[in-house]
Amino acid sequence: MTDSFAVNKANWDERAVLHAASPDYNFADFAADPAYLSAVVRFDRPRLGDIGGLRAVHLQCHIGTDTVSLARLGASVTGLDFSGAALAEARKLAAAAGASIDFREANVYDAVEVLGAGEFDLVYTGIGALCWLPSMARWASVVAGLLRPGGRLFVREGHPMLGTLDENDPAAPRYPYFEHAEPLVFDEPETYVATDRPLTHSVSHSWNHSLGEIITALLDNGLTLTAFTEHDSVPWNAIPGQMTHDEATDEWRLKDTPSRLAASYTLQAVKHG
């Protein structure tokens, strides 16, 4: 059986260097402006509230732009990712930005073993992370294991409704809405930012997960849902040719009647005391 994590690690190891070099990730802005935050964290800052002094872990942190942003909001942050290449870029970014962050290399499913149980006030998962995991039940058990009693989960993620659409023919759903055992396999030489060369490790494995499956997994693992908001925008051009860019928020939404599409969501939950 193909090891989906190995396939995806090769893909993300290669993407990491390309992403760090791309102006879309704004590394130079982090170095130049000590108050600069990633667009994703800026978008959800009102919902994040005051995180000063919290011990936070950013799961699937990639090259660290959201991780550094959380640290700039006053949290003591650990970043975890399975890609050593991504973490190498994240460490460079943190050093240039003057942020002290503990980056760890591990599969997200091994996070409790690597980081310790009940160690965190805040578990943060950013946009475009959950689709790389086959099981929400297993992910939710990791979240519950990492949080102290009363600790909070914060997720900003692409909406599974968006995940059903083919960006080249989005007129009707093509892919599963509900969690599926076998991964969706894509062979795409391009990544989602401007780069100067195609990927050689172009195959990736992904899964969609319904909102009900995500929320039920959290409830089953002792978390209580405290906030849930659906948005008509996402931080990337998810349907090329049919979306328009909002300069104020650095988000993309449908040109024609954006209320037709739930494009992303923000979810918060608290671990029972």
TrEMBL record:
InterPro entries: Methyltransf_12, SAM-dependent_MTases_sf. The keyword Transferase applies. Keywords: Methyltransferase, Transferase. Signal peptide: none annotated. It comes from the Bacteria. One of its GO terms (molecular function) is methyltransferase activity. Residues 58-153 form the Methyltransferase type domain. One of its GO terms (biological process) is methylation. It holds the Pfam family Methyltransf_12. Coiled coil: none annotated. This is SAM-dependent methyltransferase. It comes from Amycolatopsis lexingtonensis. The lineage of its organism: Bacteria, Bacillati, Actinomycetota, Actinomycetes, Pseudonocardiales.
